[in-house]
TrEMBL record:
<dbReference type="InterPro" id="IPR036052">
    <property type="entry name" value="TrpB-like_PALP_sf"/>
</dbReference>
<dbReference type="InterPro" id="IPR027278">
    <property type="entry name" value="ACCD_DCysDesulf"/>
</dbReference>
<dbReference type="InterPro" id="IPR001926">
    <property type="entry name" value="TrpB-like_PALP"/>
</dbReference>
<protein>
    <submittedName>
        <fullName>Deaminase</fullName>
        <ecNumber>4.4.1.15</ecNumber>
    </submittedName>
</protein>
<feature type="domain" description="Tryptophan synthase beta chain-like PALP">
    <location>
        <begin position="2"/>
        <end position="107"/>
    </location>
</feature>
<keyword id="KW-0456">Lyase</keyword>
<comment type="similarity">
    <text>Belongs to the ACC deaminase/D-cysteine desulfhydrase family.</text>
</comment>
<dbReference type="Pfam" id="PF00291">
    <property type="entry name" value="PALP"/>
</dbReference>
<dbReference type="GO" id="GO:0019148">
    <property type="term" value="F:D-cysteine desulfhydrase activity"/>
</dbReference>
<keyword id="KW-0663">Pyridoxal phosphate</keyword>
Length: 123
């Protein structure tokens, strides 16, 4: 497997609670692909406040930014918080190098249609 970092932004649990679940998923996927799970796992739990299922300002800003610049819909409590973590991670230079970054959008776009129109701005 390529030398990669696996970085997750938690939106529901602390790192201590989430990391064993991510390790199990990593090992299961690697096993299905007949690979060895070697990626370093880093989880960030700085972004899920004020709590599970509750939007925050950084997540809402990420939702607005991606909708206005890329036409990508994120939901405000899951993928929005994850994108806020990615943006902040880039700004804080939390990544090991300048290589490519893959953000996996896990869904939740349907929740975005419930947002007030003031949350989405045009270009």
């Amino acid at each position: 497997m390529p030398d990669v970092e696996l970085i997750g932004v938690t939106v529901s649990r602390s790192v201590a609670e989430q990391k064993p679940k991510v390790i199990a998923l990593q090992q299961a996927i690697a096993g299905q692909l007949a690979l060895t799970a070697t990626a370093d796992i880093h989880l960030w739990d700085d972004y899920f406040a004020p709590g599970y299922g509750v939007p925050n300002d950084a997540g809402m800003e990420a939702v607005k930014l991606l909708a206005s610049l890329e036409g990508v819909l994120l939901d405000p409590v899951y993928t929005g918080k994850a994108m806020a973590g990615l943006i902040d991670g880039i700004n804080q230079k939390r990544f090991n190098d300048d290589g490519p970054i893959l953000f996996i959008h896990t869904g939740g776009g349907a929740c975005a249609v419930c947002l007030p129109s003031s949350c989405i701005t045009s270009r």
